[in-house]
């Protein structure tokens, strides 16, 4: 069971991207990382994505149980946004193409074009655009509607990103999730818009509605920033985890946000004890060139190269968990 791998501190969660609607990519990544030893997958809350993940698990031919989680969020959470390019302003310079980790942008006849299926809302394109022509689009965010559109029996966990400063919105969504779903829940907590004391108090209130140790707290240090593989990039994830660890909450704790191959090593050096790790941007980046090949699942040589890379990340990360 999922709780068992958390108790045993052997949880490796692959974050596919809460806004990632690329069915083909999800199936490939889940196939690869299932084979590599990953046991937990975080997905966009759409049935076609859940189905793609299930196919990926089946493709891997592994006996070990794999677990699926869907992520939900509050208004303006970057994990659940897309972007739109105003072609009247776009100069087709291509800077956004170069920076996009999902390769969700291409050049069109009248300007750059966003592939909304691939876009995960990281907003890196906005930061490099000199023409101010890229804007944020919020996705549909009705919790009841989203949960009614999927088969809850297909998933093992629901995660709520509580990045928003609005207590009312966070707890309205948390109450709906608790009422609708009786399984394991996860709180993705970061300090982007909240002070440390506010963050701790919010987590305490959210956990008060749950049985002890039926919840995961995902310490999200620097959301969607894990492109580099160094200690500095993952520092905030470990720092956030330490703040949460010191509260001794009756929940399981995992690292996230800027996580990479150095994350659990740094946590160990800092005497921060966690139950697992969730890696997104970095885990996807290191196998990107292989995943993009159309025959990836059939080309044994290509798959083997990617598998070696993914397996090393999973095993190294779990080995260093304190």
**So, the CATH homologous superfamily of the largest domain?**
FMN-linked oxidoreductases
**How many beta strands in the DSSP annotation?**
12
Low-pLDDT runs of 5+ residues are none
The level-1 CATH class of the largest domain: Alpha Beta
Structural class: alpha/beta
Helices and strands, in order, run as HEHEHEEHEEHEHEHEHEHEHEHHH
Q: Kindly state the mean pLDDT as a whole number?
A: 91
Strand order of the largest sheet: 1-2-3-8-9-10-11-12
Tally of discrete structural domains: 2
Describe the structure.
With 322 residues, the protein is α/β, with parallel strands linked by helices. It has two domains: 2-75 and 141-319, TIM Barrel, CATH 3.20.20; 79-138, Alpha-Beta Plaits (2-Layer Sandwich), CATH 3.30.70. It is 39% helix and 18% strand. Helix 9 packs across helix 10. The longest helix is centred in the C-terminal third of the chain and has 20 residues, at 300-319. The two termini are 21 Å apart. The model has no long low-confidence stretch (mean pLDDT 91).
Q: Could you give a quick summary of the protein structure above?
A:
The protein has 322 residues and is an alpha/beta fold.
